[in-house]
Structure formats: structure tokens, C-alpha cells
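User: Good morning. I'm curious how (S)-3-Hydroxyhexanoyl-CoA would be positioned relative to this chain. Could you predict the structure with it bound?
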Amino acid sequence: MAAINAVTDLSVEDGIAVLTLNSPPVNALSAGVRDGLALGVGQALADPAVKAVVLICEGRTFIAGADITEFGGAQKGASLFEVQTAIEDCSKPVIAAIHGTALGGGLEVALTCHYRVAVPSAKCGLPEVNLGLLPGAGGTQRLPRIVGAQKAMEMMTSGQHVPAKQCLAMGLVDELVEEGKLRDGALAFARKIVAEGRPLKRVRDLNDKVEADRAHPEVFDAFRKANARKFRGFLAPEYNIRCIEAAVNLPFDEGLQVERKLFMELMSGYQSAAQRYSFFAERQAAKIPDVPDDTPLIPVETVGVLGAGTMGGGIAMNFANAGIPVTIVEVKQDALDRGLSTIRKNYERTAQRGGLTAEQVEQRMSLIKGSLDMNDFATVDLVVEAVFERMDIKKDIFTKLDAICKDGAILATNTSALNIDEIASVTKRPEAVIGLHFFSPANVMKLLEIVRADHTSKPVIATSMKLAKKIGKIAALVGVCPGFVGNRILAQRQREANKLVLEGAMPWDVDRVLYDFGFPMGPFAMSDLAGLDIGWVKEKSKGETLRDVLCEMDRRGQKTGAGFYDYDENRNAKPSPVTEKIIKDFIEKSGANPRQISDEEILERCIYPMINEGAKILEEGKAIRASDIDVVWQNGYGWPVYRGGPMWWGDHIGLDKVLAKMKEFEAKMGEQFKPSPLLERLVAEGKKFSDLKA
Ligand code: 3H9
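Assistant: Good morning! Here's the predicted structure, ligand included:
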């Protein structure tokens, strides 16, 4: 084997050149990889002994795409286009041998090869859309030529990783080879191609599919319409579709030009910058500076969940889904039965939608055992407490858990706001206590806020972070403070939303502005959905707040057909004259003068205090880095992905602007808007949140 450069080797076996890439972690198309590919193909072409070329990768995966870290910098080395031209125009067959994932630019390179073979566990996809981009190396023009416009739209706007078997069925892969024997299989395939004298298949020359698609221009708008809700606010899905339309309607090279132009537009816009940032932010959040990678882990083979309510049930499902047996303990039999039956219904609903087989439903249910006896937690490795949010109850439970659970077990609370140091203080092992704050519905929501208390041990933190990944969650480590990171910031938005309504904005005005910003719904629609009576006690209600009055009128949200909004029988919301009147009466009683409030003010009043609170959280060390706060808000609170997160958004619009507004609001409305010293300092130094080191 001869080295072409630091990341590429070339060897020749029996007339077949094997070009091997080895650029950990994911063989991304860095300058070195591109150079290696261009040189390697050139050498193979020049060698008369070579009859065909196999392109294969070492490590965990085939090329996983362009090197995202290079985006925005000056290009070095061979361009991807040059590499692809060298491969596609090579007069000897080039075969991509795929394992792991062939993604983005990786699949686009494979699509310039004349043939593709893969092991059954491999997956292919064009996930650029998730980075706010489109495949910019010919993928938008080549993929539809193999799979047709409809399938290409589905793949490119979802970014899905398609399993090799399906790739084979749709012609994206030519042959599957035995798992674990990719190199041998690819070599055998290459020999077969040479022996049979098969032609050099260039995807760019395939026109059958696009010609057939040309007769059905309606598929594009139908697809847009069917996915309008999902794509709302995002630019990239629409740009991907336009490229596929170009592939269908224009000659290959003209289609490529459309692709290039739209790719550059996306690349220079803020949405892609935000989405690329989020990709790294999620991965960064898994890294805890004082908890190194080699921290010993606690094996978690069995889990206990205390409480079979909505939260407890959802939490239990996460573990069962990952194959971990769970014991759920409840106080009363009927509550336990109800909880278990809700879990079953959830699984059955997934099965009806095709997400699980009947057998898988039973297999998951068999992993969940119900019990009325907390002593059944004696042998589990982790307990997650998910009962009523009251400190006295939690303390009582943790005293019992401390007595029951084995040494070394992790004792976790799902509290969303209570002081975990105080909970831990009742145990003789505060180092084993941690917060695992799941979000409702816990089996669906991606975020897990992992709350580190004063004494939580490093192995408990490391184990919780790893476990989060295992059960498919995106975790962020936060510190103990009221509401932790997510709810603490939410409280800022909520306060301003409520105040705005008492100054003259209507709930639907506030909701509309936040919905247009990109949230899935505004705070008032959200309250109606959750139920206005959560935490409301009839006997104590004195009509002092808008919520009190609405609940007293039995306007408790969607479930009663009315809340802030009125609802029709299909739960469609309409602004409510009743609510409007109540609000006006409230304002009149307070002696205030209602005023016209601009959309701009609504947005600034709701968003800037969130950014400011994030700064305070960083100052107090309750989050490790600004991007962790963004991970929390994107994955737990519906912050629009294409706006990065509150901290990224603050950087984007300019911290000086945020600071100036906060000062203006402080002068008019007081203390609550007081800028955090960190915000002041960053502005004074001309820095951003992203300049802060973890
Ligand atoms: C593209 O191709 C554009 C072209 O169409 C046009 C060009 C003109 N670059 O996720 P993991 C790092 S856009 C640089 O934890 P896993 C990642 O940050 C690209 N770095 O592993 C992490 O680093 P660290 C289209 C990358 O096994 C490490 O690799 N492709 C890249 O759970 C491990 O990552 C994509 O969007 C990259 N492209 O999952 C694919 N990818 O260890 C993006 C990863 O320092 N990648 N890193 O934190 C993925 O989806 C997953 O990483 C993958 C592996 C499934 C491959």
C-alpha cells in the first residue's frame, strides 16, 4: 500500500486499484481528502495495470459529507467539483464501497462513481437540509436521475438516512455485499464489472426518470402543500425542491448552475449559519470540561420509575425503547393500571401508524413491570422519581429511596424547578443524586436537562450523559437554580407576555408575533393547550389574575372549549370577545391606559429578557456555555432551529442592540429589565456569547 497523502492510500490488487481514505472521525471531505481523491484517481488512471478503482474508507463510516468546519474559509486544495469530474470522467470503472453512512458530499462523490456497493448496515442520505443547505455537489441533479423527483424530494427535504436495502431497491446502490466483508465484496464486484465489460454508468447521463417526471409538474406543488406546516419558516426545503424542479426541467449542466446559485444563497444566509451552529452545539453539549471521557461509568441495566402518571409513564417508555427493563412503582393499583394502560395505548398508536410491529409492542411492554412496593427498587441501577412537585413529598421519597436502593445506584429526580441540593440533603449519599428533567411528552421530546447538584459525583454525571444518548435524548448539563435553564428563561417570556396583555396587546397579538418568529405556538395558545387550571386552586382563587377569572368562568383551555381563545368542535382557535372584555375590564380597573403596542415591541419585550437571563445563567455558572442554553431552548421549548437559540440570536442581532433596548425598558419599566453585568461587559469589549470559553 502506498501513501498518496496523510489521509489517502493506494494499492493495486489483481488489476484493481483500492483507494482508501482514512480521515477520522467521519472521513469528511477536507482539503486533504479531496487532494488524496484527485491524486489517487489520477494515479490509478495512469497505471496501465489498473482495470478498475474501488473507493473505500477506513474507520466507522464512508465519507459523511463536506467538512463543515471548513465552510466559510478560503478553499484550499482540489475543489470537490474537480474530484468529482476526475471520478466521473475516469475511463476505468470507479466503484464506491460504502459502510456506515454515505452522507451529503459523501453520497455526492459516490454518485459520480460508476457503481456503488454497500454492506447491509450502511445508509445513504443527503441531509444538507438539516444544516439549512442543499446538496451543492451535484446531488440535487443526480439523485432525481436515479430515484425520481418524488423520492428525491422526500429524501432531500427530510435528510433521512436510507438503509442500504432500500437504496438497492431504488437503484441508489447496485449490489449489497456481506456485512464485515466490504473490501472483498467490492473487489469481487469490480472484477465482475471488468470481466463482463460493463459500461461506465454515469448518473448524469440517465434521463428516463426526469423525462417521466416532466409529465407531472403538479407533484412539486402537491409536495409543498402537503409539507407546508413542517417547512414553515425554513428556506432550505423550498430551495431543495427548486433544484429538483431544475433537474427535471433543464439539461444537467444548467441544473447544476441553478444548484450552485441556490447553494451559495443558503450558505451566505443566517439560517444555515444557525443550523450549522446547532449541529456542533448539540455535540459540544455532551462534553463536560471537568468530567473527562475516561470517567468510570456506572452500568445501568435496570431502571426504576416512581410515579405512573403522564411523566413517569413517558420516562419509562424511553428506557423500554432502549431495551432496558423498567419497574414502575405507584401508590394505588388503579393509578398503576391507568399508567400502564396509557403506555400500552401509546405503543399501539405508534404501531397503527406503522412505527412498531405488534411483536415489538409486546416486547416493549414485557420490559415494563408495575409494582405498588418501593422495595422493588432495591436492585435497580437507577431510579427516576416523577411524582408531585412538592419539596416535602420529594424529601420523604428520597429518604425512603436512600434506605431501599443498593449502594452505587443513581437516585434521580425529574423535578422541573425544585432545589436538588435540598432533596439530596436528606440522603446519606448526595453524590448519587442528580436531576433528570424530562420534557412532556417524555417519550417524544428530545431534550433532557441533566441537573448537577453540589455533591453529584462525576461518574453519576458521565453515566447520565451517556445514558441520555442511549435513550435518544439530547442532553445539556445545567446547575441548580429556580427553573434550571429552560424554565428560568421561559419565566421571563411568560412575565412579559402577561404584562403586554395588561398594557393593551391581545393574547392573539402576542401569540401571532411569536408564531411568526418561528415558535410552534405562542404562550397563550400553549396555556390553553396545557390547561389553564394547572396549579390553579378553585378555593384560593380570588379573581386577581386573568387566569383566575378565566378558570372561575370554567374557561380552562382547549379541554373546556374555551380559555384565552374560543374553540370550535375541531379545536380551531378564534380570538375571544369574552377574553377581550375581561382584559379591558382588568385594565380599566387598574387605572392604566391601554395603548397600541407594536409587533416589534412585543417581540423585543418577549425575547430580549430571555437573552439577558441566559447571560445571568452563564455568569452564575449554571450553564457551561452559551450554546448549551441554545440546545435547551431548541430541543425543549420550540425555539426555531433556523434562529439558533436565544444566545445565538442575541449574537446575531447584536448584543449592543439587546443591551440598549434592555436599558430603555429598564428606565421605563424598572428592575426586571436590568441588564446582566456579563451582557454589559461583552458589549463593552465588543464580544459575543460565542467568544466565551467553556
Ligand atoms: C455537505 O456535504 C455539503 C455538500 O453537499 C456540498 C459541498 C459543496 N464535518 O455526530 P457524531 C464530527 S454538508 C466536520 O458525534 P455519530 C462531529 O462534529 C455535510 N465534522 O458521530 C464530531 O466531532 P467531535 C453533510 C463532522 O457516530 C464527530 O465528527 N453531512 C462532520 O453519532 C463525530 O460525530 C452531514 O450533515 C462533518 N460533515 O454520527 C452529516 N460530521 O467528536 C453530518 C461529523 O469533535 N454528520 N463531524 O464532537 C452526521 O450526521 C454524524 O456525524 C454521523 C456520525 C451520522 C456521520
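The mean pLDDT is 96. The two ends are 42 Å apart (CA to CA).
Let me know if you'd like a different ligand tried.
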